[in-house]
Amino acid sequence: MACYRSEAIVLRTWDLGEADKALTLYTKDEGKIRAAGRGARRMRSRLLAVCQPFVHGRYLFFRGRGMDSLAQGELINSYRQLREELDRMAAAAYLAELVDVLVEERDPQEELFRLLLDSFDFMVEHGPTDLLLRFFELQLMNLLGYRPRLADCAVCGTRQYVDPQFSAVKGGLLCGSCAREDPAALKISPGAWESLRCLLEGRITLVGRLRPSPTVASELGKVLRQYVDYRLARPLKSLEFLQTLQR
Ligand SMILES: [Zn+2]
Fold it and tell me: How many whole angstroms from 165 Cα to the centroid of ligand 1?
C-alpha cells in the first residue's frame, strides 16, 4: 500500500463508527486531505493526541480509495491553548473552517500552510484579535486567487477617486461613478482603504502594530465579511459561534 509522510495541521475532526475519528488536515506536501484515524478515540490510542483540532504534527498516511488512513503521528505543537480557551477556540475554528470549505483537496500551497501556523502562533501569544482575523481573511483570499483590486477602480481602472466604495462582486474598489454598478457596494473611508492595503501587502508582524480606530475596524469587518461570504456556498458554522462570543 502506498504511503506518504507530511507535516500537517488538523482543521476538523468528527466521529466515525465506534472508535474511529475522521479528520480534515491541511498537509504541507499534499494540501487539504481527509483521513481516518482508526481507533483514535480509544483512551490508549497512540493517535489520540495527534487527532485533535488545530494540532500541528508529522504524520504518516496510507493512501486509500475514498479516505486515506492515518498510520502514525508525532506532535510538533499541540496548540493546546487554542482548544482550552473559548475565544481562541472559536477563532481558530473559524480560520480552520474557512480553509476547509474554500480550499480544494490536493492543491498544496506552502504559503497557506505557513499562514495557518503563523496565525495560530499569533493567537496563542496575543489572543484572537479582530485584526488577525481580517489579515487571515485577506491573505487567504489572495492565496486562493481572489486578490482584491485596491490601487485602481476594479471596473474602469481610474485612480481618481471621489467617495470610493468596495464591491465584493466586482472584486475591489469602485470609483464613485462605477459604484452604481453594484448596489451592495460598501462605502470605504481612506483609513479603511489604507488598512486593507497594509494587511494585504504586509506580514503577520504588522498585525500587532496596526491600531485602527473602532470605526475603521468595523468597516474592515464589514468589507471582508462581504468579500469572503461572496465565495461561500453556505454560511459557516463557526462564524455564528464566533459572533455570539463577540457580542
Ligand atoms: Zn470606475
Answer: 10
Q: Which DSSP state fits 230?
A: T
Domain locations in the chain as residue ranges:
3-77, 81-148+165-246
Residues 155-202 pLDDT 10s: 999 998 788 999 999 999 999 999 999 999 999 999 999 999 999 999
200-246: pLDDT as tens digits? 999 999 999 999 999 999 999 999 999 999 999 999 999 999 999 98
Q: Which CATH number fits domain 81-148+165-246: 1.20.1440.120, 3.40.640.10, 3.30.710.10, 2.40.110.10?
A: 1.20.1440.120
Cα of 237 from ligand 1 centre, angstroms: 36
Rounded Cα–Cα distance for residues 23 and 195 (Å):
36
CA 5 to ligand 1 center in whole angstroms: 49
Model confidence, pTM? 0.96
Q: How far is the CA of 226 from the centre of ligand 1 (A)?
A: 20
CATH 3.60.20.10 assigned to domain 3-77? The reply is no
| DSSP state for residue 223 in the 8-state scheme | H
Contact, 76 vs 83, CB < 8 A?
no
